[in-house]
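Issue: ligand-bound run for manganese (II) ion - logging full I/O for the record.

Environment: standard queue, default settings, no custom constraints.

Inputs:
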Amino acid sequence: MREELVYKKKTVYECASNEIIEAAYEYAKGYVEYLDASKTEREAVISAIALAEKNGFKEYVLGAPIAVGDKFYFNNRGKNLFLFSIGTEHINNGIRIAASHIDSPRVDLKPCPLYEADGMSFFKTHYYGGIRKYQWMALPLALHGVVIKADGTKVDIAIGDSADDPIFYINDLLPHLGRATNAKTVADAFPAENLNILVGSRPIDGEEGSDLIKLNVLKILNDKYGITEEDFLSAELCCVPAANARDIGFDRSLIGAYGHDDKVCAYPSMSAIFENAGGEHTLMCILADKEETGSEGSTGMKNSLMSDLIDIIANALGGTPSIVRANSKCLSADVSAAYDPNFSQVFEKRNSALLNCGVILMKYTGAGGKSGTSDASAEYIGWLRQIMAKDGVIWQTGELGKVDVGGGGTVAKFIAEYNIDTVDLGVPVISMHAPCEVISKVDLYETYRAFSAFCKY
Ligand code: MN
Ligand code: MN
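Outputs:
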């Protein structure tokens, strides 16, 4: 009787076959390859397009004709990507949408970044997204981004990832002189204006005057990239950890990497559309930018493009956009916090996602009294439960932490606004937003299997 009546969360290792577990470890290799090539949203778009083209997707130009069986990607400004494939059923039956984000917290350069002070040269920075600032100090960093020069040409920069590249660095205080800082709160001890990136210390040869170290840096940048200091004014440059993904643990069951949030959901949602394109349902996979800063802007989820594309697809196939939206379903694909026994005080264990217990379905996110969340309906979750059961997907529910301890949001509410049933689904993460975040290989695979069931049934 107990077996029948009592719900018990189980790990993937307890209930999945060996084949599934082996497939999960194999699947993780493709993910790591994607992740290592995608340190920024721009790079994540480039690597996603490469995968899409390999899977028969072609570039879509707004207004071009659309027919059943077509597989397209739409590149929005190089930072936000839409993949869609047209199914065989009538378009008024709706679209299955999976929306994740490909931007991750990091340290951006300010528009006038370069200066020299007391024998060293630095970049001034402005952090992007929610970071615990001390985690980014005394850490090898790489510089990624683009510079638009005065003549309008674009220079791509990625330096710090190869073993023979130099790296960059944010100085930290030595413990010997840390007494005053140690007495402060974490919020006060690490002012954002101290996050300056060390970029040089050697003065230029054969020049007179001040700021010779800065001048030397500019000379090197000019020799290598053809840029001047003024070109920083029209640049997007950011510092990310100078490290690729690595297995964690003697058993290699976990992956430590920068940017799991949210490439660990972007990758499986893409895999699912590649695998299920050409089936009954019309599918859309959205890789959004700017989630970490509130989904604003022309490449964030608040932009009208998703709705515009739905209008275009509906009209092209003889459907009615409002009916397509009403019958569409969405998985807002984002990570959530995994219960961590080292910080048990912030979690309510019964309702936390546990590592290795499969994909998390989060009915709501938000903060306080469920403020700022779209809160999915029981009916929609019930429907998802049924389709996941068809493929034996191992899933769990999760809340970010204890009520009133903090909170967070996802893109879910911006999609639900369009009259589309939406719920958050994704991978549990340890140390979310840290320079090295941790996920489990079997949770990643169950997330892929969940997206696949969503695209299929
Ligand atoms: Mn996220
Ligand atoms: Mn995040």
